[in-house]
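User: Need the bound-state model for adenosine-5'-diphosphate:
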Amino acid sequence: MFLFFNKTMKSNKQLSKTNVLKSEGYIILDHISNGSYGEVCHAKYIQEEKELNLVVKIIDTKQTSKEYVSKFLPRELDVIRQINHPYIIYTHSILQKKAVLFVFMAFAERGDVLQYIIDHGPLTENQARIWFRQLTLAVQYLHTMEIVHRDIKCENILITEHYTVKLTDFGFSKFVKSSKKLNCNTYCCSLGYASPEILTTRPYDGKISDIWSLGVVLYVMLNKKMPFNRKNIKLMYKQQVKRDWEHQPSIEKIISENVKICIDSILQPEPRKRWTLDKILNSDWIQMNQKLVKMTEQESFALIEALNQDKTIHQKHLKKIKANKSDTQQILGKRSPRFFSITQQLESIFSSNRETNESKYMLKRSERIVHTDNLLNKNNDII
Ligand SMILES: Nc1ncnc2c1ncn2[C@@H]1O[C@H](COP(=O)(O)OP(=O)(O)O)[C@@H](O)[C@H]1O
Ligand SMILES: [Mg+2]
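Assistant: Bound-state model below.
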């Protein structure tokens, strides 16, 4: 069955044929990355004379955890079906074949920001300002739509051929109730980008935590390293709340006071005092580039669309998911994929290195974790 929005697709019957993707014009090409919940490959979509370069995320629901399939995946599909923003990756179509989902999206030719920094070194402040503003506008759009992303990190920011950034990976995203401030209670994010309030595992405001992750992204863009020690969660939390982090000495010398203030105000451990997205966008740092002061037509159009969204649609979606009635859940919920417990996932992440001190908070691919216990008070091997 199709869950998607490509109007050219055909009926269910045709989908049962083995060559369904090809017959629908989709060709899956070489592998790009092994994602947390499936493989990411290059793909092509051929329709009449047109050929589109796409990327497909292939999610085999039999190979992923039950929690992911019943909780996170339906939310991800719900969210990506409704968003449309110049700095968010464009989802072309979503297909399902038996237990496998194919999410086709636009191809970002220059890969993700993490790889870009590893290959090219830290960004110049001017480049960081342009990309960071684009990213902040993407998050402002999502928050206006009452969506929290909850996995903002350099690996989830893609770069197009023309050096525009696009936020991707809505695997942890969800609609939230605008009236409810402490709208999230599952620990989910990538550890290095998680806010102090997430680490305490009390209910938290997902929007304000997204802003913390933005601060970590900006720090990484400029320093090519992580600000906190991720191998020891207790220590990491201490560093966050005591503001015990610093810029690389060579970077500190060359970056402006304005960007330092910006990072400092975003990595504010007290959620209520943390800078808002508006403050970031109107900050002296962004204004240092006069071209970035005003929104382009496309940028403001997207925001107006979000503002005009009928909020009741979101509430309906929330209810649908809660009632286990979303299309995906009806189909996928019946299967029983292999279940890896959360603790097992956590252990496999941490077992490889249990040292108390990380030499320097190096830059490497982050791994996502989901947890509902208080990580800080847990007396187990991982901390
Ligand atoms: N549209 C795309 N264009 C180019 N590379 C992509 C695209 N989507 C994903 N990737 C690459 O694949 C990686 C994993 O994709 P992502 O959607 O983040 O899945 P996961 O849930 O596994 O993290 C990204 O970090 C990026 O390097
Ligand atoms: Mg990702």
